[in-house]
Amino acid sequence: MADPLLALDGVHTHLGRYHILQGVDLRVPEGQVTMLLGRNGVGKSTTLRTIMGLWRASQGQVRFDGLAITARPTPDIARLGIAYVPEDMGIFGNLSVRENMVLAARSGELDDGRLRWVFGLFPALQQFWLKTSGTLSGGQKQMLAIARAIIEPRRLIVVDEPSKGLAPAIVDHLAEAFRELKTARTTLLVVEQNLGLAKAIGDTVAVMADGRVIHTGSMADLAADERLQTRLLGLSLESHT
Amino acid sequence: MNERRRILLRRLSDSAGYWIVPAVMLAGLALMPGTPWVTLTVAGVAMGVIVFMAAAGMSLVFGLMDVLNFAHGAFITFGAFVAASVFAALGAWARADALPLNLAVVAAALVAASIVAGAVGWFCERVIIRPVYRAHLKQILVTIGALIVAEQIVPVIWGGVPVAVPRPETLKGAFLLGDVAIEKYRVLCIAVGLVIYAAMYAALARTRIGMVIRAGVANREMVQAMGYRIDALFVGLFVAGSALAGFGGVMWAAYNELITASIGNQMMILVFIVIIIGGLGSIPGTFTGALLVGLTTNYVGYLLPKLALGSTLLLMVLVLLWKPRGLFPASGG
Asked: pTM for the full model?
């Protein structure tokens, strides 16, 4: 098996006196969509924040393409080609949609071809291009957050609960966008509570409980095994479709 | 009908930052028409732009890095006393009845004060602020301590008595505009302040660094997650903000013509009020807040002298009751 693009080995993260991650082992294969699932409060978002260096691992190692990034500052991690879409979307509400996108294009100017492709995925962004992003709807903000992450080719895109709080129609639209990213062999690590979306886009899956990864495998296998879903997640895909 | 009225009121409230200063000016015109209004408005705007210069850097530093820097007053103080030294050293130019020479004195004072205040700011960031990032209580304690130390250093260098900062010759007195006498120095303050505001606004709105700063004010963490080294940017911003406070110190010193070591400390009250009214981290907000403070102080001082001292605090309370995040909140989206 090829080396994973991203690997976490025995990662522990403390927030003050709380021991959130308690030895996370995770592999994210290149060119695939890895879903990180689990009940609320098991450490999924903390795992993503630890990968990005926003919270420091107190123990263990995070490697990206074989390079140890555990102790690197967040900007240096991002410059390796990792884009992050946080749970709250991280939109700069006082900037226009255009300015949000320009900032996301680290290399400088926006590439016209890439921008057209992004507009094809999210037409609303073209419509509101000069509008202050703080005035967008929740779904439009999520589109902008993901558009920022893909405005340049990235080696890995880390997304935290993209469907949270969004209307089903918007979630379907996001799923389409993720599928298109998949066809471009973009590597994604996605935290998601919506099992329907996870099933629609995921190749591999890791399930967390109590600050650890307790199950890894293919998303298709988990989707096909209702008893496993109930045991790991307390829910089944059937109830989400 | 009610719905339309509600929408209209909401829009009016949302756009308050844009119309509140003209509204206050119009209210002033209604209450004291004629000469007093013109004189007080010029004085209020001049005071406002000086306070803006003193407050702008602190607003960005607070908005971008969540740093409460009470030592900011020290940069104003050093700016004021450096101006006193420059004015004294270039006394012959200052006393000459020639506008170019007089303006050269002011320009020299502004350059010298910004260099000194910027250097003091750099030292302050490295030695005092950096060890206490993300610890508000410690920031308050150590920066108040730094302000006290700075206030004690000033008498050591410039002596313990108030220092006179006489305005250059051609900037003394007033010129007549119809029946209205307008102080020349106040016009200079307004011109310098407007140029600085326009330059800052353009830099923040049109340059990439400006965009990063505005984004950082809204969501510092996300800017870092996009690959921008905001800590390095912060040092530059801190030094620039300190230098700008030095600018404010120069203009304020010649505005008052007599300065003491507590000039910065005294101005910090106005600076905080302006930053809070305007919305943390917003340059248009700081500018609007500063104009409001300047106009209110002058209008109330004329109409209700007994209320003058408390007028700015009252203004802050009223604005916060109406708009708790200030007139131009830096939205996090």
From this structure: 0.85
Residue of B nearest to A140 (CA): B333
Per-residue pLDDT for A2 more than 80? Answer: no
- Rounded Cα gap, residues B283 and B191, in angstroms: 17
| Interchain proximity B208–A102, CB inside 8 Å | yes
How would you label B96-109 residue by residue, b for 16+ Cβ within 10 Å and e otherwise?
beeeebbebbbebb
Residues of A with CB under 8 A from a CB of B: 52, 54, 73-75, 78-79, 84, 86, 89-95, 99-100, 102-104, 106, 133-134, 141, 148
ipTM for the complex? 0.91
Q: Mind listing the pLDDT tens digit for each residue in B136-151?
A: 899 999 999 999 999 9
Q: pLDDT tens across B65-91, in order?
A: 788 889 999 999 999 999 999 999 999
More confident residue, A65 or A181: A65
In chain A the domains, ranked by start, together with CATH numbers, are: 30-56+72-81+154-241 (3.40.50.300), 91-153 (no CATH)
pLDDT at A1: 57
Contact (Cβ atoms closer than 8 angstroms) between residue B32 and residue B175: no
| B320: enclosing H helix or E strand | helix B308-322
For chain B, the structural domain boundaries read 38-262
E strand map for chain B: 163-164, 174-177, 180-183, 258-259
* Token representation of residue B297: 């102080």
For residue A93, which phi and psi values (nearest 5 degrees)? Answer: -65, -20
